[in-house]
Design brief:
The chain is 50% helix and 2% strand. It has 203 residues and is an all-alpha fold. The chain has a two-stranded antiparallel sheet. The longest helix is centred in the middle third of the chain and has 55 residues, at 65-119. The termini are far apart.
Length: 203
């Protein structure tokens, strides 16, 4: 099988072909009108008094539906950005106000604790809310302690009274849970109101 080798065409030959085509177009003579430069210097230049005249700087500026749509889109984007920045500014100002309030609260609390450490005022107020000593299980002196003691006695009296009433209404003599015989006790006497509490309102 024989192969015919052809020498590749270089760039110089390609450039020569383009120059040849341009020369042929410039020298063509059939079915076209060649304008005389002395009569019409610029054939594609529109006169200013023509109805479709347009300046050179406006020739490539589109004024159709695409331009209007892009303008509307730009307006919507601008409004969206403006709304976003407005919300962002509001959030930033709110956060700054909140952080300033938190900082003031922290400074006030820190100064308060520092004052308590220096004066020991907090340890003075660290006391029980009831007049009762949890160590020796005794009531303290005073009207509040006397009232608290009377309340305790009265609540015990009510509990014993309810227990006696339930036992009195039972049908048998035995405890239904333990099975032991119920031993009736004497009814508990109602505690007398101390003289210092008679003029005070009931709790």
């Amino acid at each position: 099988m024989q192969v015919r080798n052809i020498q590749p065409r270089g760039r110089r030959r390609a450039k020569g072909k383009e120059a040849t085509e341009k020369q042929m177009l410039a020298q063509r003579r059939s079915q076209f009108v060649r304008h005389d430069p002395q009569v019409i210097n610029k054939p594609f230049m529109t006169e200013k008094n023509a109805p479709f005249y347009l300046a050179e700087n406006q020739r490539f500026v589109s004024t159709g539906a695409a331009t209007e749509e892009k303008s509307l889109r730009d307006q919507r984007l601008a409004q969206k950005k403006e709304l976003f920045h407005a919300k962002r500014s509001v959030n930033i100002n709110r956060e700054r106000t909140r952080w300033k309030a938190e900082e003031k609260k922290y400074i006030h609390s820190d100064r308060r604790m520092q004052r308590f450490r220096e004066t020991g005022q907090k340890a003075v107020t660290n006391k029980l809310s009831v007049p009762y000593d949890t160590i020796n299980h005794k009531f303290k002196d005073g009207l509040d302690a006397e009232r608290l003691g009377f309340k305790e006695k009265y609540y015990k009296y009510r509990a014993d009274t309810r227990k006696d009433r339930l036992y009195s209404r039972a049908n048998g003599r035995f405890n239904p849970i333990t099975g032991a015989e119920v031993i009736r006790t004497a009814p508990t006497q109602k505690p007398a109101t101390p003289p210092n509490l008679k003029h005070l309102p009931a709790w």
